[in-house]
From TrEMBL:
InterPro entries: DUF695, RraB-like_sf, RraB_dom. The lineage of its organism: Bacteria, Pseudomonadati, Bacteroidota, Sphingobacteriia, Sphingobacteriales. Pfam families: DUF695 (PF05117), RraB (PF06877). Residues 168-265 form the Regulator of ribonuclease activity B domain. This is DUF695 domain-containing protein. Transmembrane segments: none annotated. Residues 25-157 form the DUF695 domain. Signal peptide: none annotated.
């Protein structure tokens, strides 16, 4: 069961107003919930419009798996059926109600789906209509008030370090498509931005011991973060190595009112 396992509620749906549109950006990452490891599938793009003012009801649906792995995650034998149930629930609810689907958690033998509703009346009827086609599956559901969208912003949405790791994985996936051997060291470029020259100099001083080379420092006039910094260092770019490097750079940049913008490197075969 996920974050809101003991919450129940019931209201009435009358008509479907339109909620703000956004560009969906789905991705997955692993996290720990109640000391259990599990992947969260989340629409990162929803953050651009969150919270939606008139969508303050958080509905959860928890489906108990019938053939989970020993670690509580979904098995290959059952995953297709779980995807089918998820698709039918998402389609059934979003087509009948003014609601959005921000994501799901898979952990401890359960698949937990989360929705934000403007009015959660009669959602339970739609859930029952979908689940009647799956009599072998036990499920539970509930609703709670969440006008600040804490369920999405503080639970489903990744922490800064997790988000950076997700971005790193995207780059690594692209490199893998070109047969890159990510364990091989190569010159890696890192890009950062700061609000003042003093902040940039403070950051450079703070990472001196990490032995980065300064490739370029510049100033641009089209942004609040106008002081740029281009660093390089020779490193392998396997997931653990690049995570350690970039997460530390990101944390340090934030301490000096800046931000880490990403990295790139040549392909090594």
């Amino acid at each position: 069961m996920g974050l809101f396992k003991n919450l129940f509620g019931n209201k009435q749906q009358t008509e479907i107003p339109k909620h703000p549109l956004h560009k969906e950006e789905w991705d997955t990452y692993f996290t720990n919930v109640d000391d259990k490891l599990g992947p969260i599938l989340v629409d990162l793009g929803l953050k651009s419009i969150a919270p939606i003012n008139d969508m303050g009801s958080l509905v959860w649906i928890s489906i108990q798996m019938n053939n989970s792995r020993e670690d509580g995650l979904s098995s290959s034998e059952e995953s297709e059926k779980l995807y089918e149930i998820e698709d039918n629930l998402v389609n059934g609810l979003t087509q009948k109600f003014d609601c959005v689907y921000p994501g799901r958690l898979t952990s401890n033998g359960h698949r937990d789906l989360y929705f934000y509703f403007s009015d959660s009346l009669l959602f339970d009827k739609t859930i029952s209509e979908v689940m009647v086609a799956y009599p072998n599956y036990e499920y539970d559901f509930g609703v709670k008030e969440d006008t600040e969208w804490g369920g999405y912003l503080n639970f489903l949405y990744p922490l800064p370090s997790q988000y950076q790791s997700m971005l790193n994985r995207r780059v690594l996936d692209n490199l893998a498509e070109h047969q890159d051997k990510n364990e091989l060291p190569r010159k890696v470029d890192h890009y950062l931005y700061f609000t003042t020259e003093t902040d940039r100099l403070g950051f450079i001083k703070a990472v001196e011991d990490a032995k980065f080379s300064i490739e370029n420092q510049d100033k641009r006039d089209d942004s609040d973060f106008s002081y740029t910094l281009h660093l390089t260092r020779v490193d392998p770019v396997d997931q653990n190595s690049i995570d350690d490097c970039t997460i530390e750079l990101s944390k340090k940049a934030k301490q000096f009112n800046g931000y880490y913008d990403g990295w790139g490197c040549p392909i090594q075969k």
